[in-house]
Structures are given as C-alpha cells and as structure tokens.
Amino acid sequence: MQRIMTIFGTRPEAIKMAPIIKALEADLALKPIVVVTGQHKEMLATALAAFHIRPDYNLHLMKKNQTLTNITVGALTKLAPIIKESRPAVTLVHGDTTTTLAATIAAFYQKIPVGHVEAGLRTYSRYDPYPEEINRQVTDVISSLYFAPTERARQNLLQEHHHAEHIYVTGNTAIDALRHTVYPDYHSSVLDQIDPAKKLLLVTMHRRENQGVPMRKALQAIKEILLSRDDVEMIFPVHLSQQVQHIAREIFADVPQAHLTAPLDVIDFHNLTAKSYLILTDSGGIQEEAPSLHKPVLVLRDTTERPEGVAAGTLKLVGTDPATIKKALTTLLDDQQQYATMARAQNPYGDGHAAERIVTILKNYLNGRKA
Ligand code: UD1
Ligand code: UDP
After folding, report:
1. Does residue 153 share a domain with residue 45?
2. Please, which residues have CB within 8 angstroms of residue 343's CB and are 6 or more apart in sequence?
3. Is residue 178 included in any domain, yes or no?
4. Are the C-beta atoms of 4 and 32 separated by less than 8 Å?
C-alpha cells in the first residue's frame, strides 16, 4: 500500500481535507497518514470530530496570540522527523494557511512530491488576503500536482507556467463535505434563540487584514441595521482569535437581536447556513458553501480569490465601508427580486465528487500513468 500523508492545521483545512481522507481510507491501494499541526486547537478538534477523523500525529502548535513566525518555525521543526520517518509517496496540503506553506516546504526538504488541494486561487494582491495570497503562490511554486477547484483556478496556474499535465480541475471538496452535513429535519439550541418570523443574518469575520478598524466599521454597520429594523436577527459564531472576540463582544454588547456564540460545530454551521436568510462574511470557505445552499453572501472584503461566485451572481463584494454594507444589506432585505436573483444562482464550485477524483488522479500518478 502506498502512503499518502495529509498535513493540515486549521478548521477550514480539516473540513475540506476530510472528504479526501475518507476516500483514501476507502481505497485498498492507499493508506492515509493524517498529520495535524494543531495551528488551531478547539476549532480543529470540533471539525475532526464531526468527520470522525483521528490524526496519526498532532504537533499541538497553537498558542494564544501566536505569530506567523511561531507557526512556521514550529511546523517546520516538528514536521521534519515525521516526514523523514514515514517517507510518504505523496504529501497533500490544502489551501493557503501558514500550515500549508510550512508543510509544503517540509515535504520539499525531504524530496517528497506535494499535491496542492484547492490550487490556483489568486487575488494577485500581495497583502489581500494576508498572508494567504503569498502562501498559496509559494505552495504552487513547490507543488508537483495541482488540484484546481475550477477552470478559472487552472487558468491562473497555466498563466504562471505550471505544467498543464500536472493540473486537474476537480471541483472543491467543500461541496463534498456539504453532502454529508446538511439535513432537512435539523434542529439545534442555537436556532431556538431566533424568532422564526425574523430574517436570520449569519455573520462571521476573522481575516487578519480586517482586524482593527475595518472589522469595527463593518460590524458597526451591521449593528445599525439590526437596531433600525424589527424584522431581522443575527447569529455570529465568533472566531476564537482574541482580537476578533474583543471587537465583536464590544460592538454587539446590549444588542438584543445579536446572538454571539462560540464557533459552531461544522454540522451546526452548515445547517444554520441552510436556515439563514443571508450571510455576511470575510471567510473563504463560506463563499464556496453558501451558493450550494442558495444563500446570498455579502463578502466583507475588497477582493476575492473566488470570483466564480461573483460571476455566478451569488456573492457580492461590499468591503468594510459602512455605507456600502448598509445599502447592500437593506437592498437584500427589502427587494425580493434582487434577493431571488442572488439566491437562485448556480453553485460554481463543483458537484461534490472532488475527493474521488483526487484519489483516482493520485493512483494514476503513483502508477506512472497520465492521471
Ligand atoms: C488561520 C489562517 C486563515 C484561515 C483561518 C481559519 C493563517 C495565516 N491564517 O487564521 O487563512 O482563514 O485560520 O479560521 O494560517 N484560536 C484559538 N483556538 C482555536 C483557533 C484559534 O484560541 O481553535 C485563537 C488563538 O489565540 C490563535 C488565534 O486564534 O493564536 C489566531 O489563530 P491563527 O491560526 O494564527 O489565525 P487565524 O486567524 O485563525
Ligand atoms: N465554520 C464552522 N463553524 C463556524 C464557522 C464556520 O464550522 O462557526 C466552517 C464553515 O462552514 C467553513 C469553514 O468553517 O467550512 C470556514 O472556515 P473559516 O471561515 O474559519 O476559514 P476560511 O475558509 O476563511 O479560511
């Protein structure tokens, strides 16, 4: 059996790698080795538990208020002996986190080929998102196999002169994960807090480049809308970053329509998405999931590496300017036609079978065949 090492460390990586780990486990010719850096702790643990994944190695890196340097140095140092001892045939990394970058370099140092899942996403804006845009560009320089979620991502890779025969359009594994989490008779204590007659706004915000003034301005705009109307409520599962916790709890203190919760289990979060009216977020993964559930997304960023959703009509970039956010939000709350146009748009991120394709491509690659 050929060993495939998956290395990841944060909540979104766990959710999107889970379908691949399951597909590897189901394949008799391949054996997954699951390594987590523990860049996230609680948020990673709940995502792993939701998919019943037990890592073979956990580096337990997370510290409160960790820096990019802490994570990079810790991951590089602790991954080296594990990769050296296990000598996997291929290492799989996902997306654009600091774990992704460090794992890619660690595998390269041992001359192990890297397969990049969700390869080719780009804004081509160096600090937007920071540091993710450069993380994914560097990861793609080092990788040997590219699992691009969309044709657009493939085009980005081709334009950077990566070899066409190593790039595969697979769809995004986020859609695979959704196939296992959403069910119609879902019930949760979080939803019990919401008046069913009200429109539910689902909010998340955590990006480093938004922390501070931009986050404050965006959340203040949402607060003003909540206070000015009696037909909306909000659920905001607040990321555990101290900076985010501080701003969110300060701004929404004493707003009765605002329900701040701990980060939700992914099954709760996906089902809540399905029950919401619309989403305001700066998350990457949520931009991919919401179109499948026919929920409009106001993206609290100036750029996106997921322009497919904007082109499909399901995402709208509103940045963090309060006037722009309030106008877009009011329009979607009041103009049913505009709401329906966004909600009806087609999901451009795949058919939910990306993981199976990735495993087939890996097997062909290992057998020396064109995948
Ligand atoms: C990281 C990724 C980002 C991704 C996000 C997903 C990088 C540079 N950033 O950002 O691309 O969108 O994860 O959520 O890799 N914390 C906890 N418990 C947890 C997780 C985080 O307490 O389970 C707190 C810690 O204080 C930690 C802080 O959050 O220091 C920030 O975590 P970190 O992984 O450094 O950055 P994220 O903003 O989560
Ligand atoms: N998510 C979750 N619980 C929450 C908020 C989000 O499980 O309380 C899931 C969400 O469905 C998506 C992923 O976490 O799959 C997105 O993670 P995040 O926004 O932290 O990171 P990004 O995608 O921006 O890198």
Report:
1. yes
2. 294, 295, 296, 314
3. no
4. yes
Asked, for residue 371, whether it belongs to a domain, the answer is no
Closest approach atom of ligand 1 to CA 132? 11
pLDDT digits (tens, 9 = 90+) for 168-216: 999 999 999 998 899 888 888 888 888 889 999 999 999 999 999 999 9
Is any atom of ligand 2 closer than 6 Å to the C-beta of 9? no
Number of domains in the chain: 2
User: What ligand is nearest to the CA atom of residue 205?
Assistant: 2
Nearest CA to ligand 1 atom 35: 66
Count the helix, strand and coil residues of the chain and give each as a percent rounded to the nearest 5. 50, 15, 35
269-310 confidence digits (pLDDT tens): 999 999 999 999 999 999 999 999 999 999 999 999 999 999
> Does residue 371 register a pLDDT over 80?
no
Whether 26 and 119 share a structural domain: yes
Q: Which residues constitute the domain of residue 40?
A: 2-172+351-366
- Whether 132 sits among the annotated catalytic residues: the reply is yes
Ligand at minimal distance from the CA of 301 is 2
**215 Cβ contact partners less than 8 Å away, ≥ 6 residues apart:** 205, 244, 247, 320
Q: Is 152 in the pocket of ligand 2 (CB under 6 A)?
A: no
Q: Are 145 and 243 within one domain? A: no
Ligand 1 atom at minimum distance from 99 CA:
15
- List the structure tokens of 100: 């992704």
Place of tokens 């706004």: 201
Query: Torsions phi, psi of 184, nearest 5?
Result: -70, -35
Closest Cα to atom 3 of ligand 2: 264
Catalytic residue among 96, 209, 288, 305: 96
Q: Do 13 and 88 fall into the same domain?
A: yes
90-136, pLDDT tens digit by residue? 999 999 999 999 999 999 999 999 999 999 999 999 999 999 999 99
Q: What is the CATH number of the domain that holds 144?
A: 3.40.50.2000
Looking at the structure, tell me whether residues 355 and 340 fall in a common domain: no
Residue of minimum CA distance from atom 7 in ligand 2 = 266
Q: Nearest residue CA, atom 14 of ligand 1? A: 11
Residue 121 lies in a domain: yes
Q: In angstroms, rounded to a whole number, what is the distance separating the alpha carbons of residues 295 and 314?
A: 7
Question: Do 69 and 94 belong together in one domain?
Answer: yes
CA dihedral sign of residues 292, 293, 294, 298: negative
